[in-house]
Amino acid sequence: MLGKLSKAQAGDISKATLNESNEPTPADRHHSAIENSHHNADDHGPAIRRLLAEHELDAAQIQGSGVGGRLTREDIEREIAKRDAQKAKQQVATEQNTISTVAYQSRSEKRVPMTRLRKRIAERLLEAKTARQCSPHLMK
């Protein structure tokens, strides 16, 4: 036997143990700090900062999937793909409106006098067409 504890001393130890258990452990403090912290561009590695700068993205607007909520390359690429898809949808809608407007405007016809060469070509094509329709060997 190494020693004896009296009842008074045992009660003091149990109270001290209870008081200590209410305080968060260093690991708990670390996890809560990670959860509560918002990463700015300086918290990320150089590759992530470069991608954010190249594509003009805000790190606060992107949900990180890395350790502690940090941004990864995949997070940035996913955000770029979302942004490009939205731009493509807007661009397609704009192009469709432009095409319908251009098609409507291009319906007006403007007659231009034919050159002699084009006029002669048109005459020969018309002759060939009518000759083929009137040929007896094609009528069968």
Automatic annotation (TrEMBL):
<keyword id="KW-0012">Acyltransferase</keyword>
<feature type="coiled-coil region">
    <location>
        <begin position="71"/>
        <end position="98"/>
    </location>
</feature>
<dbReference type="GO" id="GO:0045254">
    <property type="term" value="C:pyruvate dehydrogenase complex"/>
</dbReference>
<dbReference type="GO" id="GO:0006086">
    <property type="term" value="P:pyruvate decarboxylation to acetyl-CoA"/>
</dbReference>
<keyword id="KW-0175">Coiled coil</keyword>
<keyword id="KW-0808">Transferase</keyword>
<protein>
    <submittedName>
        <fullName>Dihydrolipoyllysine-residue succinyltransferase component of 2-oxoglutarate dehydrogenase complex</fullName>
        <ecNumber>2.3.1.61</ecNumber>
    </submittedName>
</protein>
<comment type="similarity">
    <text>Belongs to the 2-oxoacid dehydrogenase family.</text>
</comment>
<dbReference type="Pfam" id="PF02817">
    <property type="entry name" value="E3_binding"/>
</dbReference>
<feature type="region of interest" description="Disordered">
    <location>
        <begin position="1"/>
        <end position="49"/>
    </location>
</feature>
<dbReference type="GO" id="GO:0004149">
    <property type="term" value="F:dihydrolipoyllysine-residue succinyltransferase activity"/>
</dbReference>
<dbReference type="InterPro" id="IPR045257">
    <property type="entry name" value="E2/Pdx1"/>
</dbReference>
<dbReference type="InterPro" id="IPR036625">
    <property type="entry name" value="E3-bd_dom_sf"/>
</dbReference>
<feature type="compositionally biased region" description="Basic and acidic residues">
    <location>
        <begin position="26"/>
        <end position="49"/>
    </location>
</feature>
<feature type="domain" description="Peripheral subunit-binding (PSBD)">
    <location>
        <begin position="43"/>
        <end position="80"/>
    </location>
</feature>
<dbReference type="InterPro" id="IPR004167">
    <property type="entry name" value="PSBD"/>
</dbReference>
